[in-house]
Each structure stands twice: as C-alpha cells, then as structure tokens.
C-alpha cells in the first residue's frame, strides 16, 4: 500500500492550497513538511528534490512532482475529477484556467506594494463581478446541472469553490448576484470530506498575516 502524499511548502496557502483542497475533496489523507527557513528550501534543492528549484512539491506514488498544474492534473486524473472523455477534460481545464487567472490576482495581493493595493483590490472586484463570476454562473445556468461539467464533480468545481471562499474574504457581497454559484458553494462545502477540511483545526490554511508574510519573504528572498 502506497504511503500518504507528502506536501512540501511553507505553512500558508499560496500555490499549494488548491492541491490541499483537491486531495481533501477526494478524501486522501496527506502529510505536510513545512519549509520554515531559507535553509529548508536550500536543502530540498541540494538533495535534488526540486526539478526546477521551486515549490510546491508533492511526493506521491513514488514521484516527486513539481509545477502546480501538473500536480493538480495528476490528482484529478487519478481520482476521476477530470471528465469522462477528451471534450469534458477540455472543459474542465478551460474552467480551471479561468479560476486560476483570478486566483492568481488574489494570491499575489499580499505582496503588492501598499500604494498599489487599493487599485489591485478594485481590479479584483471588477473582474470578479464583471468577468469571471458571470461566466461561471452562465455555464451552470446553460445546462441546469449541479456541477460545471458532465453533471458530476470535477476539479473545476473544487477550484471554483475555493476561489469563491477567497473572494468572500475580500468582500462577501461580491457573490450576492450569483445564486447558482452560491448553491455550488453550499453543495461542495457540504461534501463530508470538504466539510472536514473546512472545519477549525482542519488542514485548510488561514490567509497570510504580517508575521507569515515576513517569513515567506525570508524563505523565498523576495
């Protein structure tokens, strides 16, 4: 029997959080080895664990996988979250990439210079309500099904609900005009595996505070 996947990253959301969500949603227990110092990161590099010298890195099924999308796609394929055929996979990937575009803006917000943060926040809100949330609401309305693709759970649903939670932390009112997205959030959040992940004390990470942000800057020298 294969051991649990091991996730190598700092103790925060970042690019590892979608991986945590996906593993949690399919009920896969995982371990985490947190990078706490620049020396921890350097050791992974020196030991040859990081193909491109960067994290996230996930040890799974005898591999040391890097590159976030590669890791997500492997997990999705392994646990049947990637559509039933090529056309469905294309849709799952297209929706996931749309989620990733907005997620990236939110991800980088804490690193934004203070004098630019207000403008970035305005841009995020505008793109949420005028571009991305309307697009996903339209998809759900077009087929009237419970999930984005093929009327069954895919990685696109999980990524989208993670994004909704992140957006609501910025401004809960941004979801107000999207009833189908609200329903999707409720549906996914009530899955027993996801409910466990979201509970206090679960493996979902909190937003970066100033102390954690300072640690990230030191680890990655940014």
TrEMBL record:
**What is this enzyme's class at the first EC digit?**
transferase
Note one Pfam family from the annotation.
GST_N
Domain GST N-terminal, residue spans: 3-83
GO-annotated biological processes: glutathione metabolic process; xenobiotic metabolic process
Domain GST C-terminal, by residue range, is 85-208
**Keywords of this protein's UniProt record, alphabetized?**
Transferase
Q: Name one GO molecular function term.
A: glutathione transferase activity
Reactions performed catalytically? RX + glutathione = an S-substituted glutathione + a halide anion + H(+)
Give the Enzyme Commission number. Answer: 2.5.1.18
Query: Which InterPro entries is this protein grouped with?
Result: Glutathione-S-Trfase_C-like, Glutathione-S-Trfase_C_sf, Glutathione_S-Trfase, Glutathione_S-Trfase_N, GST_alpha, GST_C, GST_superfamily, Thioredoxin-like_sf
Any one annotated GO CC term: extracellular exosome
What family name appears in the similarity comment? Belongs to the GST superfamily. Alpha family.
Q: What is this protein called?
A: Glutathione S-transferase
């Amino acid at each position: 029997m294969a051991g649990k996947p091991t996730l190598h990253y700092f103790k925060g959301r970042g690019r590892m959080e979608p991986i945590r969500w996906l593993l949690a949603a399919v009920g896969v227990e995982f371990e985490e080895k947190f990078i706490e110092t620049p020396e921890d990161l350097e050791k992974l590099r020196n030991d040859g664990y990081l193909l491109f010298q960067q994290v996230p890195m996930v040890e799974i099924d005898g591999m040391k996988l890097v590159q976030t999308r590669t890791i997500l796609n492997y997990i999705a394929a392994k646990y049947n979250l990637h559509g039933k055929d090529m056309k469905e996979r294309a849709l799952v990937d297209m929706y996931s990439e749309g989620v990733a575009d907005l997620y990236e803006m939110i991800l980088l917000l804490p690193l934004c210079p203070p004098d630019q943060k207000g403008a970035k926040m305005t841009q995020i809100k505008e793109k949420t309500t005028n571009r991305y949330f309307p697009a996903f609401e339209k998809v759900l309305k077009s087929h009237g099904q419970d999930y984005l693709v093929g009327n069954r759970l895919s990685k696109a649903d999980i990524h989208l609900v993670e994004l909704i939670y992140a957006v609501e932390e910025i401004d809960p009112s941004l979801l107000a005009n999207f009833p189908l997205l609200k329903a999707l959030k409720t549906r996914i959040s009530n899955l027993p595996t996801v409910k466990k992940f979201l509970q206090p004390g679960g493996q979902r990470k909190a937003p970066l505070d100033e102390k954690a942000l300072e640690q990230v800057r030191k680890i990655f020298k940014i």
